[in-house]
Amino acid sequence: MLNLKQFLVCLTSFGVANAFAVDSQSRERTDYETCLQQRVKSSSAQTTVEEIREFCLDQIQNASSDDQPRQLGAISSRIYQERMQEFDPYVIVPHRMNFVLPFYGTNHINTEPYDNYIDASENLEDVEAKFQLSLKVPLITHGVLVEGDGLYFAFTVKSWWQVYASNISKPFRETNYKPELFYLRPLPWQPGGGNAGITFGIEHESNGRSEEFSRSWNRIYMGILIEQGDFAFSLKPWWRLPEDEDKYPGDPKGDDNPDIENYMGHFELNAAYKWQDYEINFMGRQNFRTSKGAFEAGFIFPLTGRLRGYATVFNGYGESLIDYNVSQTRFGLGIALTGFL
């Protein structure tokens, strides 16, 4: 049975309960009714009506008794909505952005890995399609170390599809897989009246291929998250887990790309701003020793109904694992299924 008391503690740590703070009895009644509607939709079948009522009453009382309520920002609002839905068996929670780019061009398609396959290298098109699917599953969300923290498993897959290369049967040129396990917790620090959190995780990234096409690496990372209203910022430095050197070309137990950090850098910076139905996001990576890295900017805009358009531009190294040591400029246009915020 769903433990709503524990769920309340998690939300309170993120300032969610404080979002129900009221100035009058009528406002409290409205928030109470809204809470009831949301809980009926998201609770499991075993949860009783009385438990839902107690949860919402406690939420209103805790909000009213807090002298210094926190304001929910873009990230904490998303966490709140996700936790309201995480017990619904019919809801899949997104992790990173989910998008489809039917048009994704480049100023330089990387043919070097396919030089031994003449048909492929000579017929790769500069325009292809790209999509990303990213999901996460909460493993523990009722207090791992402190109130409001959580342990999650996530999986992200990205594919580059040569859909316009009719001479070579429209193959998938590259697919990257990234499973990760991470821990997220809120911080008491409120920079500029906003909210902050910290995350620790381990991730594996691979293209699932063998021999000369194989690319992969494993990382341990720590990230800081800061939000203020509709602006969010994250900094994620990492340390690559070492691998054995190749004993011979194509050694399946060896390191397929020992110099990947020279191009992918040692950290990733992300920022996003949301205004009404529009969102701007930015990603940057850098290795200061080699002066190599990358940046990516994206713009999400409304189309019709729930559909949102997505325009993006990328410049630098590591747009995909097969291209980790190739610098290129890419630009795309398509549909955003979920945004950064």
Structure description:
This protein folds into two domains: 4-70, no CATH class; 93-338, Outer membrane phospholipase (ompla), Chain C. The protein has six helices and 13 strands. The protein has helices at 4-13, 25-42, 49-65, 74-85, 118-123, 260-264; strands spanning 93-94, 98-106, 127-140, 150-161, 172-187, 195-206, 216-228, 231-240, 267-275, 278-287, 292-302, 308-316, 328-338. It has a twelve-stranded antiparallel beta barrel with strand order 2-3-4-5-6-7-8-9-10-11-12-13. The longest helix is centred in the N-terminal third of the chain and has 18 residues, at 25-42. The two termini are 31 Å apart. The model is unreliable at 1-25 and 64-68 (pLDDT under 50).
Structure, briefly:
The protein has 341 residues and is an alpha+beta fold. It is 20% helix and 40% strand.
Task: Set out the fold topology.
Elements: H1 4-13, H2 25-42, H3 49-65, H4 74-85, E1 93-94, E2 98-106, H5 118-123, E3 127-140, E4 150-161, E5 172-187, E6 195-206, E7 216-228, E8 231-240, H6 260-264, E9 267-275, E10 278-287, E11 292-302, E12 308-316, E13 328-338
Antiparallel strand pairs: 1-3, 2-3, 2-13, 3-4, 4-5, 5-6, 6-7, 7-8, 8-9, 9-10, 10-11, 11-12, 12-13
